Backbone:
Protein backbone atom coordinates (compact mmCIF):
# COMPACT_ATOMS: atom_id res chain seq x y z
CA UNK A 1 0.00 0.00 0.00
CA UNK A 2 1.48 3.38 -1.06
CA UNK A 3 1.49 5.17 2.32
CA UNK A 4 1.81 8.80 1.13
CA UNK A 5 -1.14 8.85 -1.32
CA UNK A 6 -3.29 6.92 1.19
CA UNK A 7 -2.41 9.30 4.03
CA UNK A 8 -2.90 12.31 1.73
CA UNK A 9 -6.35 11.03 0.69
CA UNK A 10 -7.29 10.32 4.34
CA UNK A 11 -6.19 13.77 5.51
CA UNK A 12 -7.77 15.34 2.43
CA UNK A 13 -11.13 13.81 3.38
CA UNK A 14 -10.86 14.94 7.03
CA UNK A 15 -9.72 18.48 6.18
CA UNK A 16 -12.31 18.74 3.36
CA UNK A 17 -15.12 17.60 5.71
CA UNK A 18 -13.99 20.18 8.34
CA UNK A 19 -13.78 23.00 5.75
CA UNK A 20 -17.05 22.31 3.94
CA UNK A 21 -18.73 21.25 7.18
CA UNK A 22 -18.02 24.64 8.77
CA UNK A 23 -18.96 26.39 5.51
CA UNK A 24 -22.39 24.72 5.74
CA UNK A 25 -22.60 25.54 9.51
CA UNK A 26 -21.94 29.26 8.77
CA UNK A 27 -24.49 29.35 5.91
CA UNK A 28 -27.27 27.14 7.30
CA UNK A 29 -26.97 27.72 11.08
CA UNK A 30 -24.83 30.61 12.29
CA UNK A 31 -26.09 33.41 9.97
CA UNK A 32 -29.74 32.84 10.95
CA UNK A 33 -28.81 32.29 14.63
CA UNK A 34 -26.80 35.53 14.76
CA UNK A 35 -29.67 37.44 13.13
CA UNK A 36 -32.16 36.38 15.84
CA UNK A 37 -29.50 36.75 18.56
CA UNK A 38 -28.85 40.35 17.44
CA UNK A 39 -32.63 40.95 17.64
CA UNK A 40 -32.80 39.82 21.30
CA UNK A 41 -29.39 41.24 22.23
CA UNK A 42 -27.63 37.89 22.83
CA UNK A 43 -25.22 38.02 19.83
CA UNK A 44 -22.17 39.14 21.84
CA UNK A 45 -21.63 35.68 23.38
CA UNK A 46 -21.73 33.94 19.96
CA UNK A 47 -19.36 36.52 18.47
CA UNK A 48 -16.99 36.20 21.42
CA UNK A 49 -16.99 32.44 22.09
CA UNK A 50 -18.16 30.64 18.92
CA UNK A 51 -17.33 32.66 15.78
CA UNK A 52 -13.54 33.14 16.33
CA UNK A 53 -13.08 29.40 17.06
CA UNK A 54 -15.19 28.31 14.07
CA UNK A 55 -13.34 30.74 11.77
CA UNK A 56 -9.92 29.51 12.95
CA UNK A 57 -10.72 25.84 12.23
CA UNK A 58 -12.38 26.91 8.94
CA UNK A 59 -9.38 28.95 7.72
CA UNK A 60 -6.74 26.35 8.50
CA UNK A 61 -8.89 23.43 7.27
CA UNK A 62 -9.04 25.22 3.91
CA UNK A 63 -5.22 25.33 3.77
CA UNK A 64 -4.92 21.68 4.87
CA UNK A 65 -7.49 20.60 2.25
CA UNK A 66 -5.63 22.43 -0.52
CA UNK A 67 -2.19 21.13 0.48
CA UNK A 68 -3.37 17.50 0.80
CA UNK A 69 -5.25 17.88 -2.51
CA UNK A 70 -2.06 19.15 -4.16
CA UNK A 71 -0.16 16.23 -2.61
CA UNK A 72 -2.77 13.84 -4.05
CA UNK A 73 -2.26 15.41 -7.48
CA UNK A 74 1.50 14.93 -7.15
CA UNK A 75 3.14 14.76 -10.61
CA UNK A 76 -0.25 15.50 -12.23
CA UNK A 77 -0.44 18.94 -10.59
CA UNK A 78 0.31 20.92 -13.76
CA UNK A 79 -1.76 18.60 -15.99
CA UNK A 80 -4.76 19.03 -13.64
CA UNK A 81 -4.56 22.85 -13.38
CA UNK A 82 -3.94 23.05 -17.16
CA UNK A 83 -7.08 20.89 -17.61
CA UNK A 84 -5.16 18.49 -19.85
CA UNK A 85 -7.06 15.46 -21.30
CA UNK A 86 -7.48 12.76 -18.64
CA UNK A 87 -7.21 15.35 -15.84
CA UNK A 88 -10.16 17.60 -16.69
CA UNK A 89 -12.52 16.40 -13.93
CA UNK A 90 -10.01 16.72 -11.09
CA UNK A 91 -8.68 19.92 -12.69
CA UNK A 92 -12.11 21.60 -12.54
CA UNK A 93 -12.49 20.42 -8.93
CA UNK A 94 -9.02 21.70 -8.02
CA UNK A 95 -9.70 25.11 -9.62
CA UNK A 96 -13.02 25.41 -7.73
CA UNK A 97 -11.23 24.51 -4.47
CA UNK A 98 -8.48 27.03 -5.21
CA UNK A 99 -11.01 29.84 -5.91
CA UNK A 100 -12.78 28.96 -2.64
CA UNK A 101 -9.43 29.06 -0.76
CA UNK A 102 -8.58 32.52 -2.18
CA UNK A 103 -12.09 33.74 -1.25
CA UNK A 104 -11.51 32.62 2.35
CA UNK A 105 -8.11 34.30 2.85
CA UNK A 106 -8.33 37.33 0.53
CA UNK A 107 -11.98 38.35 1.07
CA UNK A 108 -13.80 36.54 3.91
CA UNK A 109 -11.18 36.63 6.70
CA UNK A 110 -10.25 40.35 6.26
CA UNK A 111 -13.98 41.19 6.34
CA UNK A 112 -14.59 38.98 9.39
CA UNK A 113 -11.68 40.62 11.26
CA UNK A 114 -13.43 43.99 10.82
CA UNK A 115 -16.84 42.62 11.87
CA UNK A 116 -15.36 40.95 14.99
CA UNK A 117 -13.41 44.11 15.91
CA UNK A 118 -10.04 42.36 15.52
CA UNK A 119 -8.92 45.28 13.30
CA UNK A 120 -9.84 48.99 13.46
CA UNK A 121 -12.98 49.80 11.42
CA UNK A 122 -15.70 52.47 11.41
CA UNK A 123 -19.37 51.44 11.79
CA UNK A 124 -19.88 52.02 8.03
CA UNK A 125 -16.86 49.81 7.25
CA UNK A 126 -18.22 47.08 9.56
CA UNK A 127 -21.61 47.16 7.81
CA UNK A 128 -19.90 46.90 4.40
CA UNK A 129 -17.63 44.11 5.68
CA UNK A 130 -20.60 42.16 7.08
CA UNK A 131 -22.28 42.39 3.63
CA UNK A 132 -19.07 41.31 1.87
CA UNK A 133 -18.62 38.34 4.23
CA UNK A 134 -22.24 37.29 3.61
CA UNK A 135 -21.87 37.42 -0.21
CA UNK A 136 -18.50 35.59 -0.27
CA UNK A 137 -19.77 32.91 2.12
CA UNK A 138 -22.82 32.32 -0.09
CA UNK A 139 -20.58 32.21 -3.16
CA UNK A 140 -18.36 29.53 -1.58
CA UNK A 141 -21.50 27.63 -0.59
CA UNK A 142 -22.62 27.55 -4.24
CA UNK A 143 -19.10 26.63 -5.47
CA UNK A 144 -18.92 23.73 -3.00
CA UNK A 145 -21.73 21.86 -4.83
CA UNK A 146 -19.96 21.42 -8.23
CA UNK A 147 -16.62 21.02 -6.36
CA UNK A 148 -17.88 17.95 -4.49
CA UNK A 149 -19.36 16.59 -7.74
CA UNK A 150 -16.01 16.85 -9.54
CA UNK A 151 -14.03 15.52 -6.55
CA UNK A 152 -16.13 12.36 -6.59
CA UNK A 153 -16.33 12.17 -10.40
CA UNK A 154 -12.54 12.38 -10.76
CA UNK A 155 -11.96 9.10 -8.93
CA UNK A 156 -15.06 7.33 -10.20
CA UNK A 157 -15.53 8.71 -13.71
CA UNK A 158 -16.65 5.26 -14.94
CA UNK A 159 -19.53 5.39 -12.46
CA UNK A 160 -20.41 9.03 -13.17
CA UNK A 161 -20.26 8.99 -16.96
C1 LIG B 1 -13.46 22.12 -0.34
C2 LIG B 1 -12.45 21.58 -0.91
C3 LIG B 1 -12.33 20.10 -1.23
C4 LIG B 1 -13.05 19.03 -0.78
C5 LIG B 1 -14.22 19.01 0.20
C6 LIG B 1 -12.49 17.86 -1.43
C7 LIG B 1 -12.98 16.56 -1.25
C8 LIG B 1 -12.51 15.47 -1.93
C9 LIG B 1 -13.07 14.13 -1.83
C10 LIG B 1 -14.27 13.74 -0.97
C11 LIG B 1 -12.34 13.32 -2.64
C12 LIG B 1 -12.47 11.81 -2.82
C13 LIG B 1 -13.25 11.44 -3.96
C14 LIG B 1 -13.31 9.92 -4.03
O1 LIG B 1 -12.27 9.26 -4.09
O2 LIG B 1 -14.41 9.45 -4.07
C15 LIG B 1 -11.32 14.15 -3.24
C16 LIG B 1 -10.39 13.66 -4.12
C17 LIG B 1 -9.39 14.43 -4.60
N1 LIG B 1 -9.17 15.76 -4.38
FE1 LIG B 1 -10.33 17.01 -3.33
N2 LIG B 1 -11.46 18.23 -2.24
C18 LIG B 1 -11.32 19.59 -2.13
C19 LIG B 1 -10.39 20.40 -2.75
C20 LIG B 1 -9.37 19.90 -3.52
C21 LIG B 1 -8.31 20.72 -4.08
C22 LIG B 1 -8.20 22.23 -3.92
C23 LIG B 1 -7.48 19.87 -4.75
C24 LIG B 1 -6.21 20.16 -5.51
C25 LIG B 1 -5.41 21.17 -5.27
C26 LIG B 1 -8.03 18.52 -4.61
C27 LIG B 1 -7.46 17.38 -5.14
C28 LIG B 1 -8.03 16.13 -5.06
C29 LIG B 1 -7.48 14.94 -5.73
C30 LIG B 1 -6.24 14.89 -6.59
C31 LIG B 1 -8.34 13.88 -5.45
C32 LIG B 1 -8.21 12.41 -5.92
C33 LIG B 1 -9.05 12.21 -7.13
C34 LIG B 1 -8.92 10.75 -7.58
O3 LIG B 1 -9.31 9.88 -6.84
O4 LIG B 1 -8.47 10.57 -8.72
N3 LIG B 1 -9.18 18.58 -3.85
N4 LIG B 1 -11.44 15.44 -2.79
Residues:
Amino acid sequence: MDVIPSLARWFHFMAGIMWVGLLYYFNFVQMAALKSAMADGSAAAINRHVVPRALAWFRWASVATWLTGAALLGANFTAAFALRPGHVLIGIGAWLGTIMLVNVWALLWPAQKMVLGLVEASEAQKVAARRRAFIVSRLNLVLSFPLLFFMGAAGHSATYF
Notes: The chain has one domain: 3-155. The chain has a mean pLDDT of 94. The radius of gyration is 18 Å. The helical segments are 3-39, 43-73, 77-81, 88-115, 123-155, 157-160.
